[in-house]
Amino acid sequence: MKMLACKWFLSLAVAFSMALTPAFGASRIKDVASLQAGRDNQLIGYGLVVGLQGTGDSLRSSPFTDQSIRAMLQNLGISTQGGESRTRNVAAVLVTANLPPFASPGSRVDVTVGSLGDSTSLRGGTLVMTSLSGADGQIYAVAQGSVVVTGFNAQGDAATLNQGVTTSGRVPNGAIIERELPSKFKDGFNLVLQLRNPDFSTAVGMAAAINKYAAQQYGGRIAEARDSQAVLVEKPKMADLARLMADIENIVIETDVPARVVINERTGTIVIGQDVRVNEVAVSYGTLTVEVSETPTVVQPLPFSRGQTVMEPNTTINAQSDGGTVAILNGSSLRSLVAGLNNIGVKPDGIIAILQSIKTAGALQAELVLQ
């Protein structure tokens, strides 16, 4: 009785867990789409990194660094007329950052710095106050702080060790937002949701799920799929836009993507999508190995002769063919396709060649992406 009770309890637990498990391809809207008005904005600026230990720009090779140092000192009230600086503890850098959506003045963001001159390392340096501008020329943030560099250089008299990149780094929370974006979220009359992976089926399903929610909450339809990427959501008259977006982004929808096979020939990586299908096709794969070896022989002349010692060439060529197995592939599912390829017994580079040939033969019902 105890064993029967345990089996009944186990089957009930498995059934309950399967009931709680979401269907394949089910995701929240916030995970598959982004708000068009909530995109990042790129910022850029030019600045100086000081405090380097002899790894900065050589001022003769980087004249813009010398000009920047003189301009900065003059703004600080220090005259540089008639003097020539040969220090190498300053480097000119390009500073970039992403202004997050709805950022308010006073908030901080990370910045990335990269050397413009012949500096060898930014390790230990400090970025001095640098203004960051947007595409419209307006200043939106000011950056300053210690530069964090992950790479390093080690050099001795007869050896040098380099790891990572030492001419670029980050300043965590190094920029302070000084100006907010002109547009505000609640000034809009509608929402535009953009799919990260454009697909008509997903866009139409998203609009239907939003309309189902709106029919219960507001008594009407508010969403429409414009194309494979954008879904337009109109704001109801009495709705709060922020509350509406919070409710919509948590709606669970079924996602769909085209069948795709991604191949990276450089690393030998193969990614096969779930819906990839292969029509019945016969595949034969074999490798030919050719080995050429040179074993020259020294030929000595006879004693007391006037001959010369010569080298007699001796070449051996061996050709060996491996594989040659013929297999029939019928990939009605991802598991059967992978099993069929593994049964041939080839390495990833061979599987890449086979997939390309199957695509050429018209038997691969998927998009083949080569990286």
UniProtKB/TrEMBL annotation:
Residues of the signal peptide: 1-25
UniProt keyword terms in alphabetical order: Bacterial flagellum, Cell projection, Cilium, Flagellum, Periplasm, Signal
InterPro entries: Flag_FlgI
Record keyword Signal present: yes
Compartmental location: Bacterial flagellum basal body
NCBIfam families (alphabetical): PRK05303.1 (NF003676)
HAMAP family: FlgI
Quaternary data: The basal body constitutes a major portion of the flagellar organelle and consists of four rings (L,P,S, and M) mounted on a central rod.
The family this protein is said to belong to: Belongs to the FlgI family.
Functional summary from the UniProt entry: Assembles around the rod to form the L-ring and probably protects the motor/basal body from shearing forces during rotation.
Protein name: Flagellar P-ring protein
UniProt organism field: Ensifer adhaerens
Encoding gene, per UniProt annotation: flgI
